[in-house]
Amino acid sequence: MGFVFYDTETTGTSTSFDQILQFAAIHTDDNLNEIDRFEIRCRLMPHIVPSPGALCVTRISIEQITDPTLPSHYEMICAIRAKLAAWSPSIFTGWNTLSFDEHLVRQALYQSLHSPYLTNMAGNCRIDILKIAQAASVLMPGAIIVPTGDNGKPTFRLDQLAPANGFAHTNAHDALADVEATIHVARLIRDNAPALWADAIQLSEKAAVAAFLDAEPSFVLTESYYNRPYQFALTKIGYDPGNAGSVLALSLTIDMNQLRAMTDEELAARLARSPKPVRRIRTNAAPTLQPLSEYDHFDDVAAGDLLERAYRIQADAEFCARLIRLSAKQDWPASEFVEEQIYSGFVNRADENRMAAFHQAAWEDRPAIVDGFADGRLLALGRRLIFEHRPDLMSDSLRSKMAAKILQRMTGEGYETTGWTTIADAQGEAEKRLGEGTPDEAVIIAGVLKYLASKMPSAGLSNALN
């Protein structure tokens, strides 16, 4: 199976509320030889306020992202989906994709009335080259060069790591250039750490991860936090009660007798404190795992002694059940924002058929399809699409209501807090950056400030929100 390396450039860092502005991908065979490539940009959605800092990083001007000749976000996402479907099944990957780009792609598909799970359905699976590079720095030192950042600490920023490993990354933060840099690093890991690469490919499949965790009584998980890799010797104790795809594993270096002696209140508090004794392993997120049998010692404890602990823990069903019960995640109240409702249940078959019909229909026929959605999320997202592309197809009252909602979103008026960038947020950020950046950035900032001023509501419109 081949690979799809992809990257996005966006209006900001919120994976729920920002949007993709540029998408690039390269399809390779299983030996990382290029087969095809794809790149596309789109214009800004009406309700999105871009972060001036994000535009400076990507060197994209407000004039570029408001160019009416560019595809709309919806049109871009339809083109992306068609291309990725044509390249499937593949292993989807990139640099930090599992923590960032994957979520943006899912949101974009969801907000465009497509199924959000393209990269891990129909035979597709995922890995993350950043995660593999971080693991390589611990498991196979020397496989890649990890440069030192301005703070004197190792950095895994692609714009620094790729050049340190021989890639001329002169156009960093352009999506296609970042994809090319990622493939360069992937080839180095494949060549210099072949066993680690092979393990990563094998564990890209959810079923393979589940089988590994069932077969190995003790194992080592490698994860990174704030760009620093950590390792944990663990044993599986069961599944997360709220998610069958999430395995719970207990650290073997913790004093088990101390944990057993705690009251439920004490134990719950200890389980919530870092380093957490119980860790969640998502079987569909390509975790980095090795059998503990590959180690002689771990944290100065003989691997054989840790294996014995693992068997004793797994044999204590009551203790495992107690740990699982007290590790259960708290249920948070449902969000009022449609973007944050992406995982609030699967779409029923009838609405799936309506989604397919929506994409096949002419715009004139789409309002009736949207009005037929039983799922309120799809109704809200569909109306947003119609308002952006063909507001003339809406009634005067609905069109006015949609305009007021977008204005409220952009100003943040009436919300206690917002998870997105408002006009005031962007103005404050732009003014702060005016004297700090390069002349080119100053031009971008000036354009953003002019654009934001044009979007400020008049007194009449503002009063209409109150």
Largest sheet: 5 strands, mixed
CATH architecture of the domain at 205-332: 2-Layer Sandwich
* Strand count: 12
Mean pLDDT: 94
- CATH first level of the domain at 205-332: which class? Alpha Beta
At the third CATH level, what is the topology name of the domain at 205-332? PX Domain
Structural class: alpha+beta
Describe the structure.
The chain has 20 helices and 12 strands. It has helices spanning about 50-60, 60-65, 75-85, 95-110, 130-140, 160-165, 175-190, 195-200, 205-215, 255-260, 265-270, 305-315, 315-325, 350-360, 365-370, 375-390, 395-410, 425-435, 440-455, 460-465; strands at about 5-10, 20-30, 35-40, 90-95, 125, 220-225, 230-240, 245-250, 280, 290, 295-300, 300. The protein has a 5-stranded mixed β-sheet, with helices on both faces. The chain has a 5-stranded antiparallel β-sheet with strand order 9-8-7-6-10, sandwiched between helices. Helix 5 (about 130-140) runs parallel beside helix 7 (about 175-190) and helix 6 (about 160-165) crosses helix 7 (about 175-190). The longest helix has 18 residues, at about 175-190. Residues about 460-465 have low confidence and may be disordered.
